[in-house]
Amino acid sequence: MNFIKHTYLIFLLLASSIVAAQVKFESKVSKKQLGVNERLRIDFEMNQDGDNFNPPSFNGFNVVGGPSQSVKNSWINGVRTYSKTYTYFLAPKTRGNFTISQASITIDGEVYKTTPVKIVVTAPVDKPKDPNDPNYIASENIHLVAEVSNRSPYLNEAITVVYKLYVSPNTGVDNWREIDTPRYNDFWSQNIDMKGQKVQNGTYKGEDYRYLILRKTVLYPQKTGKLNIEPLTLDISVQVPTNRRDIFGSRLMSRVHKTVSAGNVSINVKALPEAGKPVDFNGAVGDFKFKVSTSKTELDATESLQAKVEVRGKGNLKLFKLPKLSLPSSLEVYEPEHNESVRTNLDGMQGSISDAYTVVPQYKGKYPIPSISFSYFDLKTESYKRLSSDEIVIDVLDGPLNSSDSNNALSSNTKQRVVLNNDQFAFIKTKTSFTAIKSSNFFKTNVFWTLLLSPFLAIPLAIFIRRKKADRDADVYGNRIRKADRLARKYLKSAKKALGKKEAFYIALEKALHNYLKAKLHIETSDLSKDKIQSLLGEKGVQADVIESFNGILESCELARYTPIDIVTMQDDYDKAAKTISLIDKQAR
């Protein structure tokens, strides 16, 4: 009887451990029926960490908040409980029956999906307006607004988004934190420094309010059509008055947490007109001046001068390429040095960009630098304009004459008579002399003995290699590290193939860096924080500048997805990543 009892207990323990080890990935909603004027919260929760989370499309809803991510770790009686959640806040677009489709995630190489959720959206419902409810008071007295300067700009025309937090006079704000920061997809973006901002007085919907400017951002749209500016979402600690009073008659305040969102903003980006577009137009939009200049126009051969191509003015200065100089072949020209002196404020980019060429003439003569042109779209007149430089002649006063290059040197146009020499074919030999080639036997040569003894020498080498392979196969821990290293190299290879495709390149590069760290430091994806990386690499003896370089590459991967990047910058980031991984391998103990 005791045997049966013990067997039953063991069976229960095994069954409970198997259930506990199962992966759970499910979706939870705050309600399955709501009014069209209400908000829906949906959580995607898992009990193990995963990668490549893909949310559903949320057809029939607008995403007004999220995704926000939270992780919970707890230890109870030596048992670890883990939970990771992605949270979204949705607003219905219209009434009807909707289905929130499956979300997916990869956990330990397996793909898991949630169960679809059916939602019923009804007519607007009357929300309780209890004047004694602090949450209702907070919702009526605090507002977050996104003010857009222009909702119908041209492609590459600057617009500004100013986020203002309006608070009624009888309401207080202790602090706030950003739950969801806007990601300006399809825009080049630049945040304006907001230090020293003060609370100002203003009006909101005709009523007196105080407001604070939280964020100013300059955007340059990179695509035409309808583009979406994601909302800024804040969690605010609010103090609101109640109907209760203290013993002195003063109104008591109640503290609540309120989530506010600026809401999605749509803009319609107009394409630049095709009529009158110059052939050499490369995307410059704004108001510019164009100049080509040289540091000197007279010099001796082998001396150097600087030829400078400069665009100055207001517009998308960092988002187009300067025209190239066309110089005579008799002038030695080095790769230009690119310089930018650009500042960004609420009016957009202003300043200048330039390419400085170092030119070294080799021969005496006069060499023209032909006129080149620069085209841009003028926003004031809504038309294309072309600016052309003047022709510049470089006079090389002293140096050897270039008799073979009469096209470039204006002064070398004199022809010389060719004089024939009777001995001009004297270098050709008309007699031959043969010498005998000594023959040697292959037998007993070095090559013969090498081929003869090689099989016998290969036997101990094969035994040694086989033993090493057996030791390597038995090293489970080392094999796991090598496998992860191969995975990192695989992603680096994918990143190299994706050069020129910004999003695919930086996604592959970021995955390579993450998998390399997981192999090197033995940590999970959820532990990949900047401080954790710095601490663990420091413990392994990696130098501080190498750690900083690694974190810098990770930050570049995140930022580069939302800013214009050319292939040269991508190649630099790839080389920097490969070099940094190599340095960590050499330094880590």
From TrEMBL:
Instruction: Give start-end of the signal peptide.
Output: 1-21
Q: What protein name does the entry list?
A: BatD family protein
What PANTHER family does UniProt report for this protein, alphabetically? Answer: BATD, PROTEIN BATD-RELATED
Which InterPro entries has this protein been placed in?
BatD
Which stretches are transmembrane? Answer: 447-465
Q: Does the keyword Transit peptide feature in the UniProt annotation?
A: no
Which Pfam family is an annotated match for this chain, by its short name?
BatD
Protein origin, superkingdom: Bacteria
Keywords from UniProt, A to Z, are: Membrane, Signal, Transmembrane, Transmembrane helix
